Amino acid sequence: MSTSLPTLLILAFVLGAMVVSWMSTPKGPNQTLIRTAVLLTLGVCYLMWTVTYLAQVHPLERK
Amino acid sequence: MGDEYPTLFRSEGMSLIQLIVPREVAHDTIAELGELGDVQFKDLNPDVNPFQRSFVGEIRRIDEMARRVRYFTAQIEKEKDLIPIRPLYDSVPLVTVGPRAAQTIDELDTKLIEHESRLVRMNENYQVLSDRMKELVEARHVLRETAVFFDRAAGAEREIRTSFDDSSAPLLQHDDREAQFSGNAQFDLEFVAGTIERSRLPTFERVLWRVLRGNLYMNHTDIQEPFIDPQTGAETRKNVFIIFAHGDTLLAKIQKVAESMGATVYPIDSNADKRADSLREVTSRLEDLQVVLFNTGNTRRMELVTVGESLASWQDVVQKEKAIYETLNLLNYDVRRKTLIAEGWCPTRDITAIQVALRHATDESGTSVSPILRELPTKKTPPTFHRTNKFTEGFQTIMDSYGIASYQEVNPGLFAVITFPFLFAVMFGDVGHGLILFTAAIFMILRERQLAKADLGEIFGTFFFGRYIILLMGAFSVYTGLIYNDIFSKSLHLFRSGWDFPVAHSNETVVAVSNGHTYLFGLDPAWREAENQIIFTNSYKMKMSIVLGVIHMTFALCLQVPNHIRFNRRSDIWTNFVPSMLFLQCIFGYLVLCILYKWTVNWENATTVPPSLLNMLISMFLSPGTIDPDSQLYPGQGTVQVILLLIAMGCVPVLLIAKPYLQYQGMKKTQSQGYIGLHGDDTVGPPTDDQLEGEEEANGRVITEEDEDHEHHDFGEVVIHQIIHTIEFCLGCISHTASYLRLWALSLAHAQLSEVLWDMTIANVLGMSGIVGIVALVVIGVMWFTLTVFILCIMEGLSAFLHALRLHWVEANSKHYEAGGYQFVPLSFARLNEEAA
Q: Which residues in chain B have their CB less than 8 angstroms from residue A36's CB?
C-alpha cells in the first residue's frame, strides 16, 4: 500500500538535519558558505527525491 | 566588527583611505602595497595628459627596457632548437626596493643594452655572411653549368673541325688550342653568363630576342635546388643562362637587359682552366664561409642561452617597475613639500595589514619618515569586493560575468555554488557520466599546484579554472543519475520494484501489475523495459521542472528583501516584493501545489477523472469560476481559483502605482514645507549630508570630490521605470516558468543519446561469442567510451552548463539582481603575472 507519507517523514528528518548543521558549523571565514551549501544541498536533494517518489506513488500510467 | 568574518553574502565593507607618502619612500611603499594586493588607487590627476605626468621619464626608461626584453623573447622563440628559459620561481630574485634599488635598476639597464647590441651585431653579421654565401653558391652553379655548355659547344665544334683535340685534353695541349683559338676570329664568341629567376626567364628571352634582333645564342638550365631566404624562408628557383653574342655593343645591351630584369651576371672565363680555378676558389671560399656561419650561429646561441637564464626575472622586474611608476603617476605630487598624496579603496578589514605593510616598507628603505594612512568619510560608491578562495572563485566569476553586484547587494554567487551544479545535474543526470566528470575534476584538483604553474593553453586553462565547478557538477550528476536510475543508459535495481511483470508468452505485450510498493529511491527500474516509458518520464520530468523552476524563482525573489532592508527602502518590500510574490504564487505557486496534490491522490479510487493541469490553468484564466464537476481536482476549486485570480490581478496595479505614488507624496510633503533647493538645482529635498558636510568641515575632505550624481527624483522617470519593471515581471513570470522546461528537454535528450549510443555499439557486440566476440567487444568498447567522453560528457556537458547558466542569469537574476557595481581591482603584482601569462 503505497502512500505519500514517507515524504513527510523524510521532510521532518531533513528539516532536523538543517537545524543541526546550522548550529554545528564551526565559526570561521567559511561559516556562511558552509551553512548555505549544506542547507541548499539538503533542500534540493530532498525536493528532487520527493517529486520522484510522489510521481510513482499512485501511478497514472499503466505499463 | 572585529569578530565577524566577511561572507560572500554581500560585498565587504570598503573604505576610502588617503596616504601621505614622503618622496624618498614612495617607490618602496607602492612596491610593498603591490605585493600585498589590497589597495585600488584612484587617479588624482585625471586632467593631466599622460605625457605631462611626473614620472614620465622613468616610465619611458622602463618601456625601453621592456622593449629589449621583448626583443630577447622574440629572438629566443625564433631559434630552431629550444632554448630553455629558467622559470620565475626558479630564478634568483632581483631586489628592487631598499637603498640599493636605483643601482640595481641601472645595472639591469646597462646589461640589457649590452646584450641587445651584441645580439643585433651578431644578427647583422649572420645576415651579411648568408648573403655572401648565397652569391657564392650561385657562382658555383654558374661555373658548373657553363662548363657543361662549353663542353657541348666544344664537342659540336669537334664534329665540325675534327682535326682539333677536345678541350678536356691536358694542360699543354690546351695552351696550343688556346693560341689556335684566338687565331680563328669567327669562332671567338663572347658571352654573358649569370642566373635569373625561373619565372622571369621567358620574358628575358623574348626581350633579348627583340633587342638584339636575333643576333644571339642563348642556353639555359635549371638549378635543381631552390634557394631559401634565411629571413623569410621563401624559396626561389633560379636558372643559369649563358648568352653568346658578338660585338661590344651587343654585349653591352645584354648586360643592361640582364640588369633590368634582375639577373645576376657572373664573370666567367672562356678558358676551361681558369674556370676550373675559379670553381676551386669558389668552393674553398664557400667552405670557409660555412665554418664562419656555423661559429656565428653558435656564439649567438650561447648568448641567447645566457639571456634565457635571467629573462624571466628581468620580465618580472620590468613589469613591476612599470606598474609602480604608473601608479605613482596617479598620485598627487606636491613638489614643494616633497610628498605624494594617494587615495584609494581598500577593504576596511585590511587597514591594519596595510599599515603594517607601510611600516615594513619604511624599514626596508632605510628612511625614518613613514607614510601616514587616514580613512576618509565619503559618499561615493565603493567598488564591490567579494573575498573568494580557490573554491568559490569559479562560481563567483561565472556570476560576475553577468554583472558585478552593486556595493553591499546580495551576492547570487554564494547560492550559485549549489544551485548551479544542481540545475546542471538535472539536465545531465547519469551516474556514469557524472563519475567521469567527477574523476576528471579530482585529477585536476590533486595536481593543482603543478598545473597552476604550467602554461595550459586557453581551452584546458578554462577547464582548469572551473575544476571545482566540474567537481560539484559531477557529484550532483551522480545523485540525479541515481534518481533518474540511469547509469550509461542502464538501470540499477537497488530496491524492491513497484511493478511485477507477468510471464510473457512469445512476443505479446504484457501489462505490468502494480504491487503496492513504491521504489524507494528514484525511478523504478521496471520503467526501463516498458514501451510507454517515455510517456511516463515526460510527464514526470516536465512537472518536476515546473516545481523546481517555481521554487528557484521564489527563492530568487526573496533575495530582494535583504537588499531593500540594507539600502533603506523598506517601503519597497510592500510596494515591490509583496505584490510580486503574491502574483507569482497565486498563479504558479498554485500550479505547483496542484501538481503535488494531484500526485498524492489515488485516482483509481477517486470519483472524478484525473484532470489535465494545463487545461485547468488555462481555463482558470479564460473561464474563471466555472469548473466542470467531472474534472475537478478538489471540491471548492472554482471559488479558490477566482479568489487567487483576483489577488493576482490586483497585484498588478499595486506593483505599477504604489511606489511612484509614495514618492509623489514624499515630494509634495517637502515642497509644502517650504524648502527650496539651496544650490539652484531642480531637485527639491532636504539638504543632503554631502552639502552639510561641505559647509561644516573645511579640511579632511576628499580631494577629487565631484558633485555626486544624485538619483534624479524626476517623477516621470520613476513612473517609467516602474511600468517597465511591472511589465517585465508579469510577462517574465509566465515565460520564465515555461523556460524551466529546458530542464526536462535536455535531460530527455541526454538520456536518449546515451541509449542510442549503447544500442548502436555495445548492444550489437554483446551477443558475439568466442575470440571474435572478445576482440570485437574490446574494439567497440573503446569506441563507445571515446564517444561517451566526447559527445555525452564534453558536448552535452557544455550544453547543459550553458543552459544552467542561462537559467541563473535570466530567470533568477532578473528577480533580484541590480548589478550596478564595479569590480575592486587592486594593484597586485600577482595578478600582473596572470594577465601577462
A: 414-415, 417-418
Nearest CA in chain B to A37: B418
> For B803, what's the count of Cα atoms within 13 Å in the CB-facing half-sphere?
22
Cβ under 8 Å to B: A residues 20-49: 27-33, 36-37, 40-41, 44-45, 47-49
Cβ of B530 within 8 Å of Cβ of A63? The answer is: yes
Which tens digits make up the pLDDT trace of B46-59? 888 888 888 888 89
Confidence (pLDDT) at B680: 46
Q: How far is CA B278 from CA B175, B179, B212, B275, B426, in A?
A: 18, 21, 30, 5, 84
* CA B546 – CA B544 distance, rounded (Å): 5
Counting Cα atoms < 13 Å in the Cβ hemisphere of B732 gives 17
pLDDT of residue B180 exceeding 80: no
Q: Tell whether A60 lies on the interface with B, counting CB pairs under 8 A.
A: yes
Is the ipTM higher than 0.90? The answer is: yes
Distance from CA of B432 to the nearest CA of A (A): 19
Closest chain A residue to the Cα of B543, Cα to Cα: A51
Q: What is the pLDDT of residue B173?
A: 47
The rounded distance, in Å, linking the Cα atoms of B205 and B269 is 23
Round the average pLDDT of chain B to a whole number and report it.
84
In chain A, what are the domain boundaries?
Answer: 5-57
**What is the per-residue pLDDT for B671?**
80
What is the chain B residue with the closest CA to A5?
A: B600
Q: Give the residue from B610, B730, B484 showing the smallest Cα distance to A48.
A: B484
- Mean pLDDT in residue range B96-112: 84
Q: What are phi and psi of B8, to 5 degrees?
A: -80, 0
Nearest by CB to residue B419, choosing from A27, A40, A53, is A40
Q: Are B383 and B14 in contact (CB under 8 A)?
A: yes
Q: Over the stretch A11-23, which tens digit does the pLDDT of each residue have?
A: 999 999 999 999 9
- Determine, for residues B523 and A4 on separate chains, whether the beta-carbon distance falls below 8 Å: no
Task: Summarize pLDDT for B287-298 with one digit per residue, the tens.
Answer: 999 999 899 988
